[in-house]
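Cont'd.
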Amino acid sequence: MKLSPLQLFGLFVLGAIVAPFGDHGHVITGTTEYLWKDTLFVWDSAGWFVLMVGTGTALLAEIRLHLGPARTEMNWRHGLAGIAAVMGIYALTALLKGQPLVPAVVLVSALGVLTWCALGDKAGAICGVIAAIGGVANEVATAHFGWFRYDESIGTLFGVAPWLPGLYFAFGVTTSVLAEILAKRIR
Amino acid sequence: MKLSPLQLFGLFVLGAIVAPFGDHGHVITGTTEYLWKDTLFVWDSAGWFVLMVGTGTALLAEIRLHLGPARTEMNWRHGLAGIAAVMGIYALTALLKGQPLVPAVVLVSALGVLTWCALGDKAGAICGVIAAIGGVANEVATAHFGWFRYDESIGTLFGVAPWLPGLYFAFGVTTSVLAEILAKRIR
Amino acid sequence: MKLSPLQLFGLFVLGAIVAPFGDHGHVITGTTEYLWKDTLFVWDSAGWFVLMVGTGTALLAEIRLHLGPARTEMNWRHGLAGIAAVMGIYALTALLKGQPLVPAVVLVSALGVLTWCALGDKAGAICGVIAAIGGVANEVATAHFGWFRYDESIGTLFGVAPWLPGLYFAFGVTTSVLAEILAKRIR
């Protein structure tokens, strides 16, 4: 393992704190709806979703450090910018409820690409793609299980939102940056 | 005084020009409403509001230069970026009328943080916090006096909008950057 | 000619691919409507519009390299950021349908300025202004010919949208950056 147990736990907590803030917007706008209601909820979010985001954050950061050396010039300012970018894009996706999908997808995807242009390296792009594929696959699966659903006007990508890859891509780039910053603390 | 009278006047004028453009959006969307109508208006903005923003801009810039040395690498491109960021966020807050508050606040706050990440230093963060506290306190007070009010769906932070700290934070960071650029001209 | 035929063709294709994605948003939101329907369409876009954007992209890039030396530090990351910025702003203009015009114009113009602050040089600003004037003049003319129209709530700038200069400015800055990157390949 490249990251210490404490660092992995910190990343888990970060993901688990960010997720309910973004997810709240999806729930109150009717972008998504939880169908499995007889489970633990954190604010408006199902516990299993919060656990998945937290675990994904820690796991992806660990993967990042196996993909190549961390840039030494990255500092917590870059990490903060990445977290703000992801939270801003996440909130924006909720505010796009009721808007036509193509411009919504173009806007969110453009913001995901800009997040990479400002903060990412090659390994960060790989983490972004891993997050986009993994995150979408996970949501397609859990929607298929009937645990939740996207509003039918939005869930046009195998049942999930077509702007989801752009959002998860930004999440993957940011997680990669956070891993790089933490890696400096190891050495 | 660190800034010359002419520089302070220029900052006052800048604030007094920017304010009515942003405030117009708040008024026409019904985000805010002036209740004290028997006073001087500049476009849709009460004169006292324009004076307050102009004075606040000059005062905060002066404060900035007492907080520590100005970075010599800051130039008018950074200042222009800061002004564009503040005007863009200000306009965005008007466009968020009718949207749910939590994602609106997350988005505006994220943009405020990104403004700092791109442009700010430690003293800029302090100026951002001073502006957030001072700006919110000032609006809480003037709303309490009955001079204006936020729409009741929005004014959930002691009567003012909960995205107001994020907007004023970006304003404070930008004012700090402008002070740094002007400080170079003094020496 | 500063650019090779292949580079000019590549720029033409890029413009011709980006245009229908942005234009689709304008058409489906009713921001614009094609009145000359008896012509070739690419998705929702008239062929003549796609040709104009493609030609304008190649032409403006060539002009850029006659305005002064290209910066050697610009790379394809800057070009990608510019393309993402233009596509994002283009999509945003569609999502602003129904919103009040002044804050919409302030927001789009601020994003155009920020695109320049992040990516542009002096020649890039000139290209941005050329694109803003030329793009608006072209749309005013084709709207005057009756080929298309803006929704009457939006077309307040000689029949076209008042946020159009901000969008074309970002397009001109980005095209200038792309020209600089391609110029490096010439030498």
